[in-house]
Known about the structure:
It holds the Pfam family ABC2_membrane_6. InterPro entries: ABC-2_transporter-like (IPR010390). Keywords: Membrane, Transmembrane, Transmembrane helix. This is ABC transporter permease. By secondary structure, the protein is mostly helical. It has one domain. Helices cover 76% and strands 0% of the residues. Helix 1 (2-28) packs across helix 2 (40-74), helix 1 packs parallel to helix 5 (98-117) and helix 6 runs antiparallel to helix 9 (195-205). The longest helix has 35 residues, at 40-74. The radius of gyration is 19 Å and the shape is globular. The N and C termini lie far apart (43 Å).
Amino acid sequence: MMFRMDFLMWTLVELFWMGVNVAMVAVIYRHTDSIGGWSQYEMLLLIGTSMIIQRLMMGFFWSNIFEFGRNIRTGHFDFFLAQPGNVLFMVSTRKLDLDSLANVVVAIAVVIYSAGKLGLHPGVLDIAAYILLLACGLAVNYSLIVLAVSLTFWVIKTEGIEGSYFSLTEFSRLPREVFRGLANVIFVYALPVVIVTNIPARALLGGIRLADAAWLVAVSAAWFGLAVFVFHRGLRRYASASS
């Protein structure tokens, strides 16, 4: 019974948070017709795309990776070193956050509703491209948080770094076109938190370029490779210190 109540409570909390984001779009677009060239329902589709990635991230990985950082600090990480198999996979996938996964359905509904309002009729290839690019966006988010938490192998206190992930994801709900100058360099190129949602959304809107899709695939592979490299460097350091 306690599990059910906890699940229901957090599902409602996340649903409320998602509702606030959707309501904010409606309020903002009462005063403007376009933001960065994006109409109200295009923006809503972008936000729904961001929600899908974030709910998947929270549902599958966030609590596991956060706990992995805590286990390094307490020494309980030795348990994983004693197990056969890939350590990063084990620490990333121990448990599921069901309330976040439940709200993936709501996020998908936001995207479908927005697409309907825009009169979009994506084909099978468009939907397949959207799903592939969503997976790339999820890979980038996963890599960023693994990199941040992997610093625990060298730095004892990383709570601030972990928390900064949520601040970064706020930018994923904005159109790429609103970023200029240094902000464009940081949030589009250096830390690609903007393109992970903008490029998949463009796949449904019909305005995606093949070069952009290839760029996101390459960026996700590069960030994932970097995250794995840093994690294993830290893992070797931890193992040698524990022996």
